Amino acid sequence: MDKYTIINMKRNGVSSRSIARQTGMNRKTVDKYWNDYIENQRLLEQEDDPELIKKLQEEVSSEPKYDISNRVPRKYTDELDGFVDSVLDEEAEKNRLLGNHKQHLTCVQIHELAISAGYDIGRSTLSDYIRIKKNKRREAYIRQEYELGDRLEYDFGEVKLVIGGIAGTYHMAVLASPAANFRWAYLYTNQKKDVFLDSHVRYFEMIGGVYREVVYDNMKNVVTRFIGRNEKELNDDLIKLSLYYGFEINVTNCFSGNEKGYVESSVKKLRNAIFSKKYKFDDLESAQAYMLDRLQEINKAESCIEDEKKCLLPYKPPYELGKLTKQKVSKYSLIQVEDNFYSVPDHLVDEWVKVKTYQSEIMVYSKSRMVARHKKIDGSQQMQIDIYHYLDTLKKKPGALKNSKALKSRAELKTIYDTYFT
């Protein structure tokens, strides 16, 4: 609202209080506009000096000027400043205890706390000081440089894909070497522990050696629980993996993505470079194969991984991740692994077999000989059947073939049966 409008409203008989209410200005400011205008008009009527008249005219037509050089905040006192510091300190402690959360105090809520504590200050004024304080608390970061073979950074990143016509969220396990400018990834359906461990083993096997240090954030696959302010209990399986391969585990501070900034940026880079143009695939295997091709193209142009391979710790055979269990074969020649069912040869009905469960497959052994191998089902209460496991039974009971689950599990055989035998 400019000076002209306020003067015009006063000329039309509008009170200063009403103008202040309509414009949002302080009533004293409105009065100052009007009083200065009246005084300058009076002086103009009395003045004869051209220079002084010109000066008065400028004052009448210009906005009033205020000397703010010596102003000090009258309501934002040292006591209130200490109160705000204590609130922000409590917020920092909350962040440490709760981890990633959405319960941050807003400036509005901090203002409510200040008013409740007896302070008299406007919300916008206090918000300005809060923002200044938060900016001062921001850290300065020191650029890091690493030697080849010293450091590998690890993180997960989500990617949206359409697999088999169904849109879903998938997970990239990203491993990145800042010294070699090398980025690699594996695509999974989840971020569970078996996926986490599998990605390490596959990477070390592919690269042909081991880094001296692997850096993680505070994901649950790394940190089992927090003890006190600074202590962290590491996951037992990760400890075993590090002891076998010989790398040191480095866990960043909470909310300090900059401490593994290379892999943080690598997640975004790979997600965009690989899946921005192509995101529809017939199956997960096709998506994984496509990602592998793109990774090779990206790293061929940008990395010096061949030089880094010479600096790695010695290669070790793949760490055994298979979970060994014993299962009894049901009368339908099925075993249960987790929440799903898999077929085994029908001569093993009612016998006990050993099962090794991996991240992506299961292997079944009887008397130290592998008798069945299945792709692991991603889901629950599902069944995977190999019709060849039922050949002996079908020879004895050929009538059971027509409506059998075994026949329906192989679409090509079902088609042949329907075409030539019905």
UniProtKB/TrEMBL annotation:
GO terms in the biological process aspect are: DNA integration
Specify the Integrase catalytic domain's residue ranges: 143-326
Q: What PROSITE patterns does the record point to?
A: INTEGRASE
UniProt-recorded name of the protein = Transposase
